[in-house]
Amino acid sequence: MELIKVKDYEELSVKAAKIISGEIAEKKTLTIALPSGSTPVGMFHELVNAVNSKKTTFKNVKAFLLDEYCDIKYNKEQSIKYFVNYHLFSQINIEEENIFTIKTDEDDLNKVCNDYNKLLEENPIDIQVLGIGANGHIGFNEPNGSFDLETHISKLAFKTRLDNQRFFNSINEVPSYAVTMGIKSILKAKHIILLISGAAKADALKRLLTLEVSEEFPASCLINHPNVTVIVDESACSGLK
Ligand code: GLP
User: Fold this and answer.
1) What's the CA-to-centroid distance between 130 and ligand 1, angstroms?
2) Does the beta carbon of 132 lie inside 6 Å of ligand 1?
3) Where does residue 44 rank: exposed (0-12), middle (13-18), buried (19+ CB within 10 A)?
4) How do the pLDDT tens digits run along the chain, 241 residues long?
5) Catalytic sites, residue numbers
6) Between the CA of residue 137 and those of 87, 122, 202, 204, 205, what are the distances in Å?
7) For the whole prediction, is pTM greater than 0.90?
């Protein structure tokens, strides 16, 4: 794992966007998988600026979403598709057919998972961007879930629902289930970029740097991947000596 320490959230966002733009420039076509949450929003905005100033282009980029809530009718404002579309897709030159979302509005979720796995097989991920939950979850892979799963239905930990409550009117509205790319899918990416920002994630960063690989702490699966870049800001480092 390469650890890049930056001063603050702004620098973290700039750095992440630069790495992505750099890889887009290097390869003719690129497939990226993206998370939601507050952490990547600054990076999304940097990418929008880079597209607007012609420093990068998403013309030949395919984008997969890392996860999606269940029980949210597609395109509703709390869906992850809506969130990433609002902050990124609607503002860049990505082709509509190159956006891959997890269609949890469909009835047969097992089929939805299988279809997504097939698409991921046909389109290997070059860059997987991740945030991290305070409990170490990545995507919606919660503590003590199996590391041997591809896209699957996941029951959300209460802590995750509490942390994500801010995107909803109340805790009761936060779905209890989501469909997420599994750890097995995530680890297939050629390059993984993990973003960790803020004091609320200090304990998660400390655990990532001190723990062994364990299903108790899902992000620890990244330890043995050959190409992981972890970008952290000073406040996330506040728990380190
Ligand atoms: C959600 C997402 C994760 C994200 C996490 C942290 O649970 N499923 O992909 O990393 O939240 O979000 P934030 O960046 O808002 O702290």
Assistant:
1) 8
2) yes
3) buried
4) 999 999 999 999 999 999 999 999 999 799 999 999 999 999 999 999 999 999 999 999 999 999 999 988 655 788 999 999 999 999 999 999 999 999 999 999 999 999 999 999 999 999 999 999 999 999 999 999 999 999 999 999 999 999 999 988 889 989 999 999 999 999 999 999 999 999 999 999 999 999 899 999 999 999 999 999 999 999 999 999 7
5) 67, 135, 137, 142
6) 22, 26, 14, 9, 12
7) yes
